[in-house]
Amino acid sequence: MFWQQLVNGLALGSTYALIALGYTMVYGIIQLINFAHGEVYMMGAFVALFLVLAFKMNVFLAMILAMAFCAVLGVFIEFIAYRPLRKSSRLSAFISAIGVSTFLSTLALLIFGADAKGFPDNSFPIVRFTIGSAEFSSLQLLIFGVSALLMLTLEFIIQRTKIGKAMRATSQDYNTAALMGVNINLVIAFTFVLGSSLAAAGGVLVGIYFNAVSFNMGLMAGLKAFAAAVLGGIGSIRGAMLGGLFLGVVEVFGVALGYSSYRDAIAFAILIIFLLFKPTGLLGEKIQKKV
Questions:
Q1: Residue 287 covered by a domain
Q2: Which of 10, 202, 279, 291 is deepest in the core (most CB within 10 A)?
Q3: What is d(CA 238, CA 161) in angstroms, rounded to the nearest whole number?
Q4: Considering the domain boundaries, does residue 268 fall inside one?
Q5: What is the DSSP letter of 136?
Q6: Inter-residue contact 289 to 172 (CB < 8 Å)
Q7: 27 in a structural domain
Protein backbone atom coordinates (compact mmCIF):
# COMPACT_ATOMS: atom_id res chain seq x y z
CA MET A 1 0.00 0.00 0.00
CA PHE A 2 2.96 2.35 0.46
CA TRP A 3 3.52 3.11 -3.23
CA GLN A 4 -0.19 3.44 -3.89
CA GLN A 5 -0.65 5.98 -1.10
CA LEU A 6 2.49 7.81 -2.21
CA VAL A 7 1.02 8.27 -5.68
CA ASN A 8 -2.29 9.50 -4.22
CA GLY A 9 -0.47 11.85 -1.87
CA LEU A 10 1.69 13.36 -4.59
CA ALA A 11 -1.37 13.96 -6.75
CA LEU A 12 -3.14 15.78 -3.91
CA GLY A 13 0.04 17.59 -2.88
CA SER A 14 0.56 18.89 -6.42
CA THR A 15 -2.71 20.81 -6.19
CA TYR A 16 -1.76 22.20 -2.78
CA ALA A 17 1.56 23.33 -4.25
CA LEU A 18 -0.14 25.22 -7.07
CA ILE A 19 -2.25 27.19 -4.59
CA ALA A 20 0.61 27.65 -2.11
CA LEU A 21 2.72 29.31 -4.81
CA GLY A 22 0.25 32.18 -4.97
CA TYR A 23 0.43 32.72 -1.22
CA THR A 24 4.21 32.67 -1.08
CA MET A 25 4.74 34.95 -4.11
CA VAL A 26 2.39 37.65 -2.84
CA TYR A 27 3.91 37.49 0.63
CA GLY A 28 7.41 37.61 -0.79
CA ILE A 29 6.64 40.78 -2.74
CA ILE A 30 4.38 42.86 -0.47
CA GLN A 31 4.46 40.96 2.85
CA LEU A 32 0.71 40.29 2.66
CA ILE A 33 -1.20 37.03 3.07
CA ASN A 34 -3.91 37.01 0.40
CA PHE A 35 -6.64 35.13 2.24
CA ALA A 36 -8.95 35.51 -0.78
CA HIS A 37 -6.65 33.19 -2.73
CA GLY A 38 -8.70 30.09 -1.93
CA GLU A 39 -11.78 31.71 -3.42
CA VAL A 40 -9.86 32.52 -6.62
CA TYR A 41 -9.09 28.79 -6.79
CA MET A 42 -12.81 28.09 -6.40
CA MET A 43 -13.78 30.61 -9.09
CA GLY A 44 -11.36 29.00 -11.53
CA ALA A 45 -13.04 25.63 -11.04
CA PHE A 46 -16.50 27.12 -11.58
CA VAL A 47 -15.48 29.03 -14.71
CA ALA A 48 -14.05 25.88 -16.29
CA LEU A 49 -17.12 23.86 -15.28
CA PHE A 50 -19.43 26.48 -16.79
CA LEU A 51 -17.52 26.48 -20.08
CA VAL A 52 -17.58 22.70 -20.28
CA LEU A 53 -21.30 22.42 -19.47
CA ALA A 54 -22.59 25.43 -21.41
CA PHE A 55 -20.39 25.29 -24.51
CA LYS A 56 -19.26 21.63 -24.52
CA MET A 57 -15.73 22.97 -24.45
CA ASN A 58 -12.65 20.79 -24.23
CA VAL A 59 -11.49 20.61 -20.62
CA PHE A 60 -7.96 21.78 -21.47
CA LEU A 61 -9.20 24.86 -23.30
CA ALA A 62 -11.62 25.52 -20.43
CA MET A 63 -8.70 25.33 -18.00
CA ILE A 64 -6.68 27.86 -20.01
CA LEU A 65 -9.62 30.28 -20.18
CA ALA A 66 -10.29 29.80 -16.44
CA MET A 67 -6.65 30.64 -15.74
CA ALA A 68 -6.97 33.79 -17.87
CA PHE A 69 -10.19 34.78 -16.09
CA CYS A 70 -8.64 34.33 -12.65
CA ALA A 71 -5.51 36.22 -13.71
CA VAL A 72 -7.72 39.23 -14.49
CA LEU A 73 -9.66 38.63 -11.27
CA GLY A 74 -6.42 38.60 -9.28
CA VAL A 75 -5.33 41.94 -10.74
CA PHE A 76 -8.78 43.40 -10.03
CA ILE A 77 -8.64 42.21 -6.41
CA GLU A 78 -5.18 43.71 -5.95
CA PHE A 79 -6.25 47.03 -7.49
CA ILE A 80 -9.51 47.35 -5.55
CA ALA A 81 -8.82 45.70 -2.20
CA TYR A 82 -5.07 45.79 -1.56
CA ARG A 83 -3.41 48.66 -3.42
CA PRO A 84 -5.30 51.43 -1.58
CA LEU A 85 -4.23 49.84 1.73
CA ARG A 86 -0.62 49.20 0.81
CA LYS A 87 0.67 51.81 3.26
CA SER A 88 -1.94 51.07 5.92
CA SER A 89 -1.61 48.67 8.82
CA ARG A 90 -1.43 44.91 8.28
CA LEU A 91 -4.76 44.56 10.08
CA SER A 92 -6.51 46.73 7.48
CA ALA A 93 -5.18 44.58 4.62
CA PHE A 94 -6.12 41.42 6.50
CA ILE A 95 -9.72 42.61 7.00
CA SER A 96 -9.90 43.59 3.34
CA ALA A 97 -8.72 40.11 2.32
CA ILE A 98 -11.37 38.47 4.50
CA GLY A 99 -13.99 40.75 2.93
CA VAL A 100 -12.97 39.78 -0.61
CA SER A 101 -13.00 36.10 0.37
CA THR A 102 -16.53 36.37 1.80
CA PHE A 103 -17.75 38.33 -1.23
CA LEU A 104 -16.46 35.79 -3.75
CA SER A 105 -17.81 32.75 -1.89
CA THR A 106 -21.22 34.43 -1.47
CA LEU A 107 -21.27 35.43 -5.13
CA ALA A 108 -20.55 31.83 -6.15
CA LEU A 109 -23.31 30.63 -3.83
CA LEU A 110 -25.84 33.01 -5.40
CA ILE A 111 -24.86 32.16 -8.98
CA PHE A 112 -24.21 28.42 -8.81
CA GLY A 113 -26.17 27.36 -5.72
CA ALA A 114 -25.20 25.43 -2.62
CA ASP A 115 -25.07 21.94 -4.15
CA ALA A 116 -21.79 20.60 -5.49
CA LYS A 117 -21.57 20.34 -9.27
CA GLY A 118 -19.62 17.77 -11.28
CA PHE A 119 -17.89 17.66 -14.64
CA PRO A 120 -19.49 15.44 -17.31
CA ASP A 121 -18.27 11.84 -17.32
CA ASN A 122 -16.82 12.24 -20.81
CA SER A 123 -14.93 15.45 -20.07
CA PHE A 124 -11.70 13.51 -19.57
CA PRO A 125 -11.18 9.81 -20.40
CA ILE A 126 -10.17 7.78 -17.33
CA VAL A 127 -7.73 4.97 -17.97
CA ARG A 128 -6.22 2.90 -15.17
CA PHE A 129 -2.97 0.96 -15.32
CA THR A 130 -0.63 -0.67 -12.84
CA ILE A 131 3.10 -0.27 -12.32
CA GLY A 132 4.42 -2.65 -9.69
CA SER A 133 2.10 -2.48 -6.70
CA ALA A 134 0.75 0.99 -7.47
CA GLU A 135 -2.26 1.77 -9.62
CA PHE A 136 -2.26 4.99 -11.63
CA SER A 137 -5.11 6.73 -13.36
CA SER A 138 -4.99 9.09 -16.31
CA LEU A 139 -6.41 11.81 -14.03
CA GLN A 140 -3.44 11.48 -11.69
CA LEU A 141 -1.05 11.67 -14.63
CA LEU A 142 -2.91 14.78 -15.80
CA ILE A 143 -2.40 16.39 -12.39
CA PHE A 144 1.28 15.42 -12.31
CA GLY A 145 1.89 16.66 -15.86
CA VAL A 146 0.02 19.97 -15.63
CA SER A 147 1.41 20.76 -12.18
CA ALA A 148 4.99 19.99 -13.21
CA LEU A 149 4.64 22.04 -16.41
CA LEU A 150 3.22 25.06 -14.57
CA MET A 151 5.83 24.88 -11.79
CA LEU A 152 8.70 24.66 -14.30
CA THR A 153 7.22 27.57 -16.26
CA LEU A 154 6.98 29.62 -13.08
CA GLU A 155 10.57 28.77 -12.16
CA PHE A 156 11.70 29.86 -15.64
CA ILE A 157 9.80 33.15 -15.39
CA ILE A 158 11.22 33.93 -11.96
CA GLN A 159 14.82 33.02 -12.76
CA ARG A 160 15.24 33.76 -16.47
CA THR A 161 13.06 36.73 -17.43
CA LYS A 162 13.30 40.47 -16.89
CA ILE A 163 10.02 40.65 -14.98
CA GLY A 164 11.22 37.73 -12.84
CA LYS A 165 14.38 39.63 -12.00
CA ALA A 166 12.23 42.63 -11.07
CA MET A 167 10.12 40.39 -8.82
CA ARG A 168 13.21 39.07 -7.06
CA ALA A 169 14.57 42.59 -6.62
CA THR A 170 11.27 43.83 -5.21
CA SER A 171 11.13 40.88 -2.84
CA GLN A 172 14.62 41.62 -1.51
CA ASP A 173 14.21 45.38 -1.07
CA TYR A 174 10.95 47.06 -2.02
CA ASN A 175 12.12 50.67 -1.67
CA THR A 176 15.51 50.23 -3.33
CA ALA A 177 13.92 48.45 -6.30
CA ALA A 178 11.57 51.41 -6.75
CA LEU A 179 14.48 53.85 -6.61
CA MET A 180 16.32 51.82 -9.27
CA GLY A 181 13.42 52.23 -11.69
CA VAL A 182 11.43 49.05 -11.11
CA ASN A 183 7.71 49.57 -11.74
CA ILE A 184 6.44 48.29 -8.41
CA ASN A 185 2.76 48.39 -9.37
CA LEU A 186 3.45 46.34 -12.49
CA VAL A 187 5.48 43.79 -10.53
CA ILE A 188 2.80 43.36 -7.89
CA ALA A 189 0.04 43.07 -10.51
CA PHE A 190 2.07 40.47 -12.42
CA THR A 191 2.60 38.54 -9.19
CA PHE A 192 -1.17 38.36 -8.71
CA VAL A 193 -1.56 37.27 -12.34
CA LEU A 194 0.82 34.34 -11.84
CA GLY A 195 -0.57 33.31 -8.45
CA SER A 196 -4.22 33.53 -9.47
CA SER A 197 -3.74 31.61 -12.72
CA LEU A 198 -1.93 28.80 -10.87
CA ALA A 199 -4.72 28.66 -8.30
CA ALA A 200 -7.30 28.42 -11.09
CA ALA A 201 -5.42 25.49 -12.63
CA GLY A 202 -5.39 23.79 -9.23
CA GLY A 203 -9.13 24.33 -8.85
CA VAL A 204 -9.88 22.80 -12.25
CA LEU A 205 -7.65 19.79 -11.57
CA VAL A 206 -9.26 19.16 -8.18
CA GLY A 207 -12.74 19.62 -9.64
CA ILE A 208 -12.04 16.98 -12.29
CA TYR A 209 -10.24 14.64 -9.88
CA PHE A 210 -12.97 14.58 -7.22
CA ASN A 211 -15.76 15.47 -9.70
CA ALA A 212 -17.13 18.07 -7.28
CA VAL A 213 -17.08 21.86 -7.45
CA SER A 214 -18.77 23.86 -4.69
CA PHE A 215 -18.89 27.44 -3.47
CA ASN A 216 -17.00 26.62 -0.25
CA MET A 217 -14.29 24.38 -1.74
CA GLY A 218 -11.74 27.19 -1.51
CA LEU A 219 -11.92 27.57 2.27
CA MET A 220 -10.16 24.44 3.47
CA ALA A 221 -8.00 24.11 0.36
CA GLY A 222 -6.80 27.68 0.84
CA LEU A 223 -5.99 27.12 4.50
CA LYS A 224 -4.09 23.91 3.75
CA ALA A 225 -2.19 25.60 0.93
CA PHE A 226 -1.29 28.43 3.30
CA ALA A 227 -0.02 25.81 5.75
CA ALA A 228 2.00 24.28 2.90
CA ALA A 229 3.52 27.66 2.06
CA VAL A 230 4.56 28.14 5.70
CA LEU A 231 5.92 24.58 5.89
CA GLY A 232 8.06 25.17 2.83
CA GLY A 233 9.19 28.58 4.05
CA ILE A 234 6.88 31.50 3.31
CA GLY A 235 8.35 33.59 0.51
CA SER A 236 10.24 30.64 -1.04
CA ILE A 237 8.97 29.44 -4.43
CA ARG A 238 10.64 26.05 -4.22
CA GLY A 239 9.64 25.79 -0.58
CA ALA A 240 5.97 26.21 -1.51
CA MET A 241 6.28 23.43 -4.08
CA LEU A 242 7.97 21.12 -1.59
CA GLY A 243 5.59 22.06 1.23
CA GLY A 244 2.53 21.28 -0.89
CA LEU A 245 3.85 17.86 -1.91
CA PHE A 246 4.91 17.07 1.64
CA LEU A 247 1.53 18.05 3.07
CA GLY A 248 -0.40 16.03 0.50
CA VAL A 249 1.65 12.90 1.16
CA VAL A 250 1.35 13.18 4.95
CA GLU A 251 -2.40 13.79 4.74
CA VAL A 252 -3.03 10.77 2.51
CA PHE A 253 -0.88 8.48 4.68
CA GLY A 254 -2.71 9.73 7.77
CA VAL A 255 -6.03 8.76 6.19
CA ALA A 256 -4.62 5.38 5.11
CA LEU A 257 -3.56 4.67 8.69
CA GLY A 258 -7.14 5.15 9.88
CA TYR A 259 -7.20 8.82 10.88
CA SER A 260 -9.66 9.97 8.21
CA SER A 261 -11.71 11.87 10.82
CA TYR A 262 -8.65 14.04 11.47
CA ARG A 263 -7.79 14.59 7.81
CA ASP A 264 -8.09 18.37 7.94
CA ALA A 265 -6.44 18.60 11.34
CA ILE A 266 -3.30 16.78 10.17
CA ALA A 267 -2.12 19.75 8.10
CA PHE A 268 -2.42 22.18 10.98
CA ALA A 269 -0.87 19.79 13.49
CA ILE A 270 2.19 19.55 11.25
CA LEU A 271 2.19 23.33 10.86
CA ILE A 272 2.22 23.81 14.64
CA ILE A 273 5.11 21.35 15.01
CA PHE A 274 7.13 23.15 12.36
CA LEU A 275 6.43 26.56 13.89
CA LEU A 276 7.69 25.26 17.24
CA PHE A 277 10.87 23.55 16.05
CA LYS A 278 11.66 25.07 12.62
CA PRO A 279 9.70 28.31 12.19
CA THR A 280 11.52 29.23 8.97
CA GLY A 281 10.10 26.15 7.21
CA LEU A 282 11.84 23.56 5.06
CA LEU A 283 13.62 25.99 2.73
CA GLY A 284 13.04 29.30 4.46
CA GLU A 285 15.89 31.45 5.71
CA LYS A 286 16.18 33.62 8.78
CA ILE A 287 16.58 37.24 7.69
CA GLN A 288 18.68 39.56 9.80
CA LYS A 289 17.34 43.11 9.81
CA LYS A 290 19.87 45.92 9.98
CA VAL A 291 19.10 48.84 12.27
A1: no
A2: 202
A3: 17
A4: no
A5: E
A6: no
A7: yes
